[in-house]
Amino acid sequence: MKTQCYNPYLPLWEYIPDGDEQAEMTSQGLNGKPLDGKGTYPAAIACILHGKEEQGISRPYTLGQPYVTQDMPDFSSEKSMQQTENKEEVPYPYLTQISDGAVIGYKYFAFHNLCTISVKIRHADGELYVKMIGKEDGNETKLCRIPLKRSEEWTEVSAEIIPEALSEVLQENSPGIWQEEPKGQIGTLLFTYHGSGSMEFLEFSLN
C-alpha cells in the first residue's frame, strides 16, 4: 500500500511507501518557499491549531477545540463570478472557538525588518502572545503581546515588536526582491491566546 502526499522537491504528487517520512504540513501551500514576512494573511492557513489539552490539528467535532469555519455557505462558481467585487457577500474562512490556552501556528515565514503585528479578531477578552521559532536552530524568540478587548465586530488590534526581538533576529536582513530564496530569518509564527470568551480570528498582518 502507498501513501500519496505533496513533496515540493518532486513532481506535484509523489507516491511514498508507507513508513517513509511524509511531507511536512505547512502554511506555504504550493508556494515552494517560505511566505514573505510582510503583508496580510488569512488566519485560516494555520497548520498548527489546537486547544490547551489537545495537540495537533483540531476537527469541528472535537469538543472545545478551535477549527476553521465561515459566516455563510459556499455558493456556485457562477454566483462567485458575479460577486467577487463585493467582499461582504463572499464566504471568507476564519478560526473560531479559540479559548484560553489555544495555539495557532504558521510555517514558514521569512521575517525581515518586522516592526508591528496586527490581528483582526472578535469575541476576545485577554491577550495574544506571539513568538517565532527558528526553522534551523529551534530557538524561540518572543515577538510581542497583543492586548484584546471584547468586541462583537471584527476589530483590528496591533502591537509593536519588543526591542529584544528586533536586536536578536528580525533586523538581520533588509527586504528586497526575492531571487531563489527569500531574505530574512525563516521560522514558525505562533500565536497563543490567554483570556476569556471564545475568540474568532480572521486575519493577521506583518509590517
Give a summary of the structure in a few sentences.
It is built from two helices and 14 strands; from the N terminus they run ββββββαββββββαββ. It has 207 residues and is mainly beta. The strands form three sheets. Strands 3, 5, 8, 10, 11 and 13 form a six-stranded mixed β-sheet that branches.
By DSSP (H or I, 4+ residues per run), the number of helices equals 2
Q: How is the quaternary structure best described?
A: single chain
Average pLDDT across residues?
79
Shape descriptor reads: globular
Order of helices and strands: EEEEEEHEEEEEEHEE
Rg (CA only): 18 Å
Query: What is the helix content?
Result: under 10%
Strand coverage percent: 35-45%
| End-to-end Cα distance | 46 Å
Number of E strands: 14
Query: What are the segments in which pLDDT stays under 50 over at least 5 consecutive residues?
Result: 1-15, 172-182
Structural class: mainly beta
Give a short account of the largest sheet: 6 strands, mixed
Structure, explained:
The chain has 207 residues and is mainly beta. It has two helices and 14 strands; from the N terminus they run ββββββαββββββαββ. The protein has helices spanning 77-83, 163-170; strands at 2-6, 13-17, 35-36, 39-42, 48-50, 67-70, 93-98, 103-111, 116-122, 125-134, 140-148, 155-160, 185-196, 199-206. The strands form three sheets. Strands 3, 5, 8, 10, 11 and 13 form a six-stranded mixed beta sheet that branches. The protein is globular, with a radius of gyration of 18 Å.
